[in-house]
């Protein structure tokens, strides 16, 4: 089976984007917060606690009455959901046989109690699940959601919940100078020459990288070319300054980098149309580099070229939406 296209989109529910599991009606065996952990579920066959086998996921008790269990997740960034993954890794005899997902769009910061009374809308109808499997399902909806509710029938364990989609942050907060490239503001990676070790989307994540694995690292090049990543900004914007951060990349940072920009999507493939924002500059290992940009026109895309290859922890493109 081919990999669904939606898996290339950001996980809007991930803890890496500040997603949170606000409520679960039951979490006797394993806590609900594990659902949105950014890392894959781990498993230790010898790890037992007072309540039984310890699982890296959310697990409810065996139901002895009618009904079903559910968990409410606040998305780290609101957005349009294109597909979901209900991952039952390591749950073999105790996974739920069916699940569904509902969504709601509520501005502000509603409590779990207030969300219980919200008008939830089905996003994914009841579907069958397999155990110890990353169950993937496309979603056909163009609506914007702020919260999702995972329903499992009747009970059981789910390791991870991935909500893949397109970020749609509140435009009221996209004022002044912001990071136009940030995932949380609606930026995203649209092209990358090499993603051998880790995803280029990491460079647009929240906060500073905590280690090398939270950046973008490509393979070592053995030719005369160089690696690059293209980022679609949150919108058309005037760029003031950028940051190219090589933190934690000590022996594998790029030797040099260059940043260019373009406004029209139709000219992305035309190398001559790209405008230089940061001329080719030497980079240091394990260092945050900041560069002023003197651009006389708005940009919608930026391209970061690294020479000849190497790892980047973060790319920040600070500017103002026009």
Automatic annotation (TrEMBL):
Protein name listed in UniProt: Probable allantoicase
Taxonomic lineage from the root: Bacteria, Bacillati, Actinomycetota, Actinomycetes, Mycobacteriales
Highest taxon in the source lineage: Bacteria
One GO MF term attached to the UniProt entry: allantoicase activity
EC identifiers of the protein: 3.5.3.4
Gene, per the UniProt record: alc
Reaction(s) catalysed by this chain's protein: allantoate + H2O = (S)-ureidoglycolate + urea
Record keywords, A-Z: Hydrolase, Purine metabolism
Pathway(s) the chain acts in: Nitrogen metabolism; (S)-allantoin degradation; (S)-ureidoglycolate from allantoate (aminidohydrolase route): step 1/1
PANTHER family referenced in this protein's UniProt entry, alphabetically: ALLANTOICASE, INACTIVE ALLANTOICASE-RELATED
Allantoicase domain ranges (all copies): 19-167, 186-321
Family, similarity comment: Belongs to the allantoicase family.
Family matches, as HAMAP family: Allantoicase
Gene3D superfamilies: Galactose-binding domain-like (2.60.120.260)
Keyword presence, ATP-binding: no
